[in-house]
Every structure is written in structure tokens, then in C-alpha cells.
Design brief:
The chain contains 16 helices and 13 strands. By secondary structure, it is of the alpha/beta class. The strands form four sheets. A four-stranded mixed sheet has the order 1-4-5-13, sandwiched between helices. The chain has a four-stranded antiparallel sheet with strand order 6-9-11-7. Helix 2 packs across helix 8, helix 5 packs across helix 12 and helix 9 crosses helix 10. The protein binds uracil. The site of uracil has 6 residues, from helix 9.
């Protein structure tokens, strides 16, 4: 099929056939479609949309552009009926993967978790893992299978063979204003998850200023598409829409978030982070068929309370070449040598800590990247010393910043002073999980 005919079809608002979508993705992958034709079709999709069938075909073609793991031979009876994973659309302070993957594995799940780097104000799991001395995320297929067989859990990066069409398409979308298309976002996310060889997927779709979707309607729409496409691609899927208007936990930055994840696995973490990690891990346990709705959470809490989750994390770190001593001595993780405090401007109660602003402050400090090729500093970061709803006095320290460069510090402080609001009335408590969407409720 000619590229020009495919572009004209979508430009004029007609659906693309499976054959047309396959031809497009082949052309993206082997380079026979030049950038201007790829972006013309991406813009046509952005403007005219896609049906669920088209988006599912696109996802499948993107999966087929690379290799897909087959883990069926590693699945033992104690792992349940299928390997499972979780994907988050990204948030500020979101280190749940480091907690829930070991917890789910300690409950028996087989968890082949492939993650990406952070971009913009949301952090990335790979950047956090890179903060653990020696930890390797670039495992060959043979090594990841060996590590998975040994511990039940691997935390790795997407290799060049994973959905290569997505890499070129995402770069072109980024440069042409076509990222914010729900079918394209859903196909991009799921093409990478399907390659993991999983059968069940829990989605954490963040809603709020620190997330990819700022309001509930958009998050709901993305979740419905994600669930619809994932189920049609053979993954049992559940999406939890969770609050990301304020940072998750109290630490933002790479090494500092690993420290907080370790504290949480020791039972000593902030309640919001612990609760969300347990909730998501319990969903994975249910999808794997290892417990029913009522039995899953107690099982995960037992893995947490008994220290089995922590031991699993230690094994995962050692199995991937990292220094497992960080578990007992988190001071082995990097920390920038200069500190600054943000003080409360008045006496009152903290009414808001804005996740988007805190995330941008972290990027400015060097904890995240605003360009794909920016280098991240594991030791810089932000510790929140108070929570929303806390009563504070004028001059009391609210935020501690670890930094290296004073120019960057000043820019970060500008964001942080606006991020935290002190008023007269405590905000009403809000639930962390706002909604759950699965194939019965997705209405697709
Ligand atoms: N994350 C992805 O992996 N792809 C998108 O298109 C958007 C977010």
C-alpha cells in the first residue's frame, strides 16, 4: 500500500485497515517512510482519531515491530496463572514500583517489570534504579530470564528490540505537537507492556497537576482506551485512577526515593505511599489468580509486615549486580552535599503542596530531565518535612532541598515557595484511589 493513500484515507476521516496500519508501522520501523510522511499520518490520526479496533491493530503492529518475551516456561504453580506487571502514567514522588514489585513477587507473582526514564516533571523508575550503586537494568534476555527464575522479579529497561516503532513515532510526535492523542498514547504505552510476555496488567493512571492527565474526565477516557486495547490484546487489565495533585510520599529525587522505598518496605514509610503500593500489589496478586478480592490485601500486608518484601528487594538488587548493603545502610546512596530549607511564611495549616510545582523544582535541581538526553543527578532532591493538613508555625522548616548548584537552587526555590500554601483551614481528606476501571466498566 502506498503511504500517500494511507495518509489521504485518514486525512479524509476514514478508518485505516489492518493492512494499512501494518504497512505504516513497517515503514516506520524499516525507515522506508520518511519523517514527513510518518508525521503527516500522525497528525491525521491526532486530528481525526481512531476507533478502538484501529488502535488495537496499531498496538499489535508496534509490538510486532520488535521482539516479545515468552515466559511461559518460567511460570511455576506458585506463580499463579500468568506473569503480571503494573504501569504508572507517571507522577511526582511515585516510587511504588520499587515497593510493589518485590511485594508482589514475595506473594508468588512473576513480575518482569520493564520501565522507562523520566521525562518532564514526572520521575522515571530507571533513574531511581540507577541511583543504586552497581544496579544493572540493561540485562540480556538470557540474564533477565535467569534473574526472573531466581527471584520472581526483574526491574529492567526497555531494550532496543522492544517496540522499536514506538521510539521513532514518539520522537516525531514530541517534535510535531502530536503527543496528546489518546489512541497514540495508549498504543505507545501498551505496545511496550505487551512485549513483556505478561498476562495481567494493573494500570495506575495518575490524575492531577503532577500527572500526565490533569483532570478526572481525561484520565477516565485514557483508562477506558488502555483497558479496552489491553484486553483486546490478551491482557487482563484493571486501571486505578489515583490522585496526583500532591506528591506521593515525602521524598522526590532519585536516591532519596530509593531510601524512602526501603523505609516503606521496612514498614516505616509514609502512609499514602504504603497504602497505594499495597493496593496495587494486591491487584496484581488477584490478576495472577493467587488470591481473591478479599484475600489479596492481607496477603500483601503479610509480605510487608514479615519483611519478605524487603528481603525480595535485597535479592533483586543483588541479582542485578547492585550493592545489597543499601538495604541496611541507605546512607550508601548518593546525597548532594549542600542543603537549603524552605520555611513557613506564616502560622497556619498546610492547605496544598502542588505536585506539578514540586516536580518542576526537582527537574530544575537536576533530579529529572527536560530533554531526552539530559543527565540526571542521583543525589539532588527534595524532602517534604510536613504534609497537607499539618499545623505549622511561622519560620518552621517545611521543605529540605539537597542541591549542588546554587543557580539551580534559586530557580527550584521559586517553584517550591509557590508549591506550598499555608492557610487557615485544613483541606478535606481525599481518597487516594479515585476510581477503578476494568473491562466491565470501561464500556468499550
Ligand atoms: N508514555 C508513553 O510511553 N507513550 C506516550 O505516548 C505517552 C506517555
Amino acid at each position: 500500500m502506498r503511504a500517500l493513500d494511507i495518509i489521504r484515507t485518514k486525512r479524509d476521516g476514514y478508518p485505516l485497515s489492518r493492512e494499512a496500519i501494518d504497512a505504516f508501522v513497517s515503514g516506520v520501523t524499516d525507515g522506508t517512510w520518511p519523517d514527513y510522511q510518518v508525521t503527516a499520518l500522525l497528525m491525521a490520526i491526532f486530528l481525526k482519531g481512531m476507533s478502538l479496533d484501529e488502535a488495537t491493530a496499531l498496538t499489535q503492529a508496534m509490538v510486532d515491530s520488535g521482539t516479545r518475551l515468552d515466559l511461559s516456561d518460567l511460570l511455576r504453580p506458585e506463580n499463579g496463572s500468568m506473569p503480571v506487571d503494573k504501569h504508572s502514567t507517571g507522577g511526582v514522588g511515585d516510587k511504588t514500583s520499587l515497593i510493589l514489585a518485590p511485594l508482589a513477587a514475595a506473594c508468588g507473582c512473576l513480575v518482569p517489570m520493564m520501565s522507562g526514564r523520566g521525562l518532564g516533571h514526572t520521575g522515571g523508575t530507571l533513574d531511581k534504579l540507577d541511583a543504586i550503586p552497581g544496579f544493572r537494568t540493561d540485562l540480556s534476555v538470557a540474564k533477565l530470564r535467569k534473574a526472573l527464575a531466581a527471584t520472581g522479579c526483574v526491574l529492567i529497561r526497555q531494550t532496543a528490540e522492544v517496540a522499536p516503532a514506538d521510539r521513532r513515532m514518539y520522537a516525531l510526535r514530541d517534535a510535531t505537537g502530536t503527543v496528546a492523542s489518546i489512541p497514540l498514547i495508549a498504543a505507545s504505552i501498551l505496545s511496550k507492556k505487551v512485549t513483556e510476555g505478561i498476562g495481567g496488567l494493573v494500570l495506575d493512571v495518575k490524575v492531577g497537576s503532577g500527572g500526565f492527565m490533569e483532570n478526572l474526565d481525561d484520565a477516565r477516557e485514557l483508562s477506558r482506551w488502555l483497558v479496552g486495547i489491553a484486553e483486546r490484546s490478551g491482557l487482563r487489565t484493571q486501571a486505578l485512577l489515583t490522585r496526583m495533585d500532591t506528591p506521593l510520599g515525602r521524598r522526590i529525587g532519585n536516591a532519596t526515593e530509593v531510601r524512602e522505598a526501603i523505609h516503606t518496605l521496612k514498614g516505616d514509610g509514609p502512609k499514602d505511599l504504603e497504602d497505594l503500593s499495597v493496593t496495587l500489589a494486591a491487584r496484581m496478586v488477584v490478576l495472577a489468580g493467587l488470591a481473591d478480592e478479599d484475600g489479596a490485601e492481607p496477603r500483601v500486608r503479610d509480605a510487608l509486615g514479615s519483611g519478605r518484601g524487603l528481603e525480595k528487594f535485597r535479592q533483586v538488587i543483588a541479582g542485578q549486580g547492585g550493592d545489597p548493603r543499601v538495604i541496611d545502610d541507605p546512607s550508601l546512596l548518593a546525597v548532594a552535599d549542600r542543603e537549603s530549607l524552605v520555611m513557613s511564611p506564616r502560622t497556619g495549616v498546610i492547605t496544598r503542596i502542588d505536585a506539578g510545582r514540586v516536580g518542576r523544582a526537582a527537574v530544575v535541581l537536576g533530579a529529572g530531565r527536560d530533554r531526552v538526553d539530559a543527565v540526571v543527578d542521583p543525589g539532588v532532591g527534595i524532602d517534604l518535612l510536613a504534609n497537607e493538613g499539618d499545623t505549622v508555625s511561622r519560620g518552621e522548616p517545611l521543605i529540605r532541598v539537597f542541591y549542588r548548584d546554587s543557580g539551580r537552587l534559586e530557580a527550584a526555590l521559586e517553584h517550591l515557595r509557590v508549591a506550598i500554601e499555608v492557610g487557615d483551614t485544613a483541606p478535606a481528606p481525599r481518597p487516594l484511589v479515585l476510581e477503578t476501571i476494568d473491562i466491565r466498566t470501561a464500556k468499550v
